[in-house]
Amino acid sequence: MKESNTNEKIQNFFGKLGKLSKATWAIIAVVVVVIIGFFVYSGNRKSEVLTDKDVKVKFDGYNGEGRATCNEEVIQLKILKILAQKVGLDKDTEDLMLKSFDNHGLDFNRISLDSSKIEKLKKIEDLIDDVHIDFDKRINLKNGEKIHLKITVNNGKDNPIKPESKTYTVKGLENIKQESTSSVLSSVKVSFAGFNGIGRVIIKSDKIKDGTFKVKNNGKLSNGDTVKIKAPDELFNKQGVHYTGDKYVKATVDGLQDLSKIKNIDAIKKFSDDVIKNSYKSDGYEITFINLYAFAGDSNDSDSSSSSDSAVKSDVTINDDSASKVSGKRMSVIGLYQIVDKDLDNSDPFLRKVTINNLKDEDNVANISSISADDDTSVVNASNTLSIEQHDLMAKGIKLK
């Protein structure tokens, strides 16, 4: 009996459907399509992030040199919550993920979960790797300039995050101050060390603690030369300040002693001759004097012209006392000699250099009488040809004889 009633109800229902008009059927079809479309749209709807009131953009620095920042971590947390909903992550695991992000950034290795939840977290990781947050211009900003904070999404088909852009107007940047370079360089004090023709610059400052200046021909300066002492650029990199004016100090070289006016050059030569003759006592050697050269400082000094590959060193470190070693009129002398072994047939001549250290110029007289041949001299081979040796010695020092 119940089965008969059920069948009768079904027949009556379809009978009524058969009596519906075409218009009614059309309405039903539209409703069905709308419902299906709603669920499809809901499943693929993209979520906006930058509209969130918690997204903040900040400008700091100076007008023309400003910088934009945003609270990117807040934005990332918002994105993580959307992605957690997308993959169906439960609330407890989502809270654990967000807490881990707060402490360590996005590092799922710190979360201990079962395999099913780990798979969802990996899916979130893949999705967030495709999301990028950045400004179209972040630095060198000026007031009134419009910039955009953008969210871009790679492979965005399955990603619920909507690509978007929000415009911000730069404001609140401080004005850049104008200052003269002289405000920095006025404390630089310039002096000169060495001897006329092989002089060097010494730079001191009680305000500038360090820095390397550039001086053309430093180490080959003569009295009367005008030098430009170029300051390092980093001295003028103060934030919020624009410097105008020359970035160098100009000075005229003076006070260098003239080695050519030393009165006892012949005595120095004789001392050098005695040293080389003592090294070759046998009558079988023919010794010929070539030239005598003077240098600022001792050949043992690390800053001495005679011990370096080149006398010209353009770099000058401010407040460096090493150059002052030569300011006490200390000098060294090198005598160049050609020697022939007469006992050998067709013997080629060879060159030797006698170096005399610890010399001082005292009122245009070198203290040669105070020098020890054993302690203050050395004799070494000259490895180059005569012309090259002469060129190199002249480049580093001054020819006395």
From TrEMBL:
Q: What keywords are annotated for this sequence in UniProt?
A: Membrane, Transmembrane, Transmembrane helix
Q: Which residues cross the membrane?
A: 23-41
The domain of life for this entry's organism is Bacteria
Protein name per UniProt: Membrane-associated protein
Q: Which organism is it from?
A: Xylocopilactobacillus apis
